[in-house]
Amino acid sequence: MVDKGRDEATTCRDYVLPRLKDESGWLPGQIKEQVPVTAGRIVRAGRSHRRQRPLQADFVLEIADGVPVAVVEAKRAFADPRDGLQQAKVYAEQLDLPVAISTNGHGVAMFNFLTGEETNPEYFPRPDELWGLYLTHHGVTNSKIADVLREPFSRVLKHTDGTPKEPRYYQRIAIHRTVAACLSGQRDRLLLTMATGTGKTFTAMQIVWKLMQYWEHTGQAGLKRVLYLTDRDSLIEQPMRNDFTPVFGEAVHRIRGEKDTARSIYFATYQALANVARTDLFKEYPSDFFDLVIVDECHRGSANEQSSWRAILQHFSPAIQLGLTATPKRAANIDSYKYFGEPLYTYSLKQGIADGYLAPYRVRRVVLSPDAEGVRITAGEVDKYQREIPEGVYETKDFERIISLFKRTDVAAQYLTDYLHDTDRMGKMVVFCVDSDHALDMRQAMTNANRDMSRIHKDYAARMVSKEGDWGKRMLEQFQDPETLAPVVATTSRMLSTGVDIPTLRTVVLFRPIGSVHEFKQIIGRGTRLAEDYDKLSFEIIDFVGATILFEDPEFDGPAEYEIEETIDDAGQVICHPDLETPESDVSESEPSDYAEAQPAAPVPPHKFVVDDTEVQITAEGVWMTEPGSDQLRLVEYRDYAQGVVRKLFPGPDKLRSRWRTAPSRSEIAEALGVRGIALDELCQRTGLTDADPLDVLVHVAWNEPAISRHERVYRAKRAKGDFFQRLPEEARAVMDELLERYAVHGAGELETLEVLKLDPMRRHGSIREIASLFGGPERLRQTWVELQKVLYAA
Asked: How far apart are CA 240 and CA 201, in angstroms?
């Protein structure tokens, strides 16, 4: 017998740990064992969720608490010490570390990301060696900056279980890169790109915390000040309340129309600083008053060269300016990259879902007949108010902008109501409508379609637009609160498209066309936040307007690039410039901000033509999902994905059938499909084959064989294997007949355990013990039970 050597756990305990401590001088608190690098991707199968195995390093070496400098991957003692180096490099790269180490306990292999060199040192590197490499990796040469990077993070904020809220690995990277860049003076404009739901404001708070520690420890003269700047009230209130005030207390102040110079951390909207009572409040502050200006959602507002708010950033130009965004936008006049520079760090939606820190999603594409066929208006037709409608064919882009179709809204509302009945009547949903009037129509339609719930919760459906004023803001606060039941359905246009945290949002409904990838990402981001305490681990996107085609845009989950298409005539002249994909201006749908009345009023849009006699039907529906094993966030149709998975697991239908004949094997198959995002009951429902056995559904989906009903399967089994039934005692045969009838009506779950014999009509034969006696005893009953399933699935 070949000696395979000590296992990895023994190698770690008996060899790696002693060598790290005794030979290389690592303290016990600096050596972290079995460290999860990620949380593990969440995979949804039907209504259940499970996490895939997270990336986990055998050892992470930390120079200080929360400051890793290297990973060590350990293999068995008989293995080559280099065997784990590829794995260690993956972990080290993800953690943004300069060194990856592999070992078998005796030998050491090391890869240096700075030099690209792979070596085999005699000993593990010492703490001071790895710390030096880490500083070089971050471009830090100042010892005082190095000291602040070793400072602990703020641990004031707590999780619901009372444990401190520690930065995740990608947040640590963003924090340290930003702090190093700020203090070393590398750039005066910085950019962090982090997907919605990945904790930008928590990251910003920790950046400010580290900088405050540096300013305090170095004894720099004067109070150091930070300005947190954005364009919406909701983007001010949440970070102030949830992240900054608990940590910095009275040092936090919000600017509301008058100058204050006694604090150190200021929050303000652009509107509060500019054009207040015809004055510019920001000019009352010296240009060097702030040391750091944090610009949240920097792809909007002052990032626009033509914006009247750009003067605020220009005034405070001596300060370091840090832009935060989930969707850097590049166009002719709005360019986050051009102003702030290339991102110091990017953490994408794709990576967040892969790591298990963001919720995965599914897409339902629903096509209504007016959207599929268009609505043709002939000359002389009038609307509900007897106004003549211009002749022509109206399409999705025209609905609720030029022509309003009440029945289209009603049919969509009924579809959403049926969906809520099938899932969760109290599952929070946002419906993005064309404008505030359309949101009002949808609120009414959802209220009427859910009268039973509206009687219990008067605000079951609520419109949330700025026209609602303070009342709308209260509705939004209740909608955001996981502990508040209603509102359940929020109808809006743009007010909830960005910067609003709704942790328990389960459904995002797209009922208006979306012309730009950056806005699409912001809207989708409303659902990506996890709320595990409330069992919110995924979300659904219901698309009535074809907006999810933007998932296929190459810019969807990558850096935006300049790409302009123009139409050229035969003479080579440009005859059509493309839209620059700037969201339509809709002041009524902007979040109400400080002194908003001082802003110029938007022109009143033309009144829509109202048509209420158009026939509307659902002409198509499809369910799409993000492929769990894919490196891309590409959508695949649910049935096509299931076909590929089944074919990959089983080479042919005969192999699947042979495995299906026993309950334990069926459970194993269901488990294998579940970890890949497929639930058998959901697959039966999606294919419309709810009266068929899951085996027949799988064979039908994978190899396109005709699916038979469960009743037909029972009939075939009795015809083909009549001798099996005939040899049973008469009353035992009656029990089997009744059991098969339950199977035919209720499904394959009836065959899982003998406990089903306690149910009608079998229980009229007595207890399970008494029924067993009809078969010749418990052992004979169990044998017959197993044989019955083989007979049934041999048909």
From this structure: 9
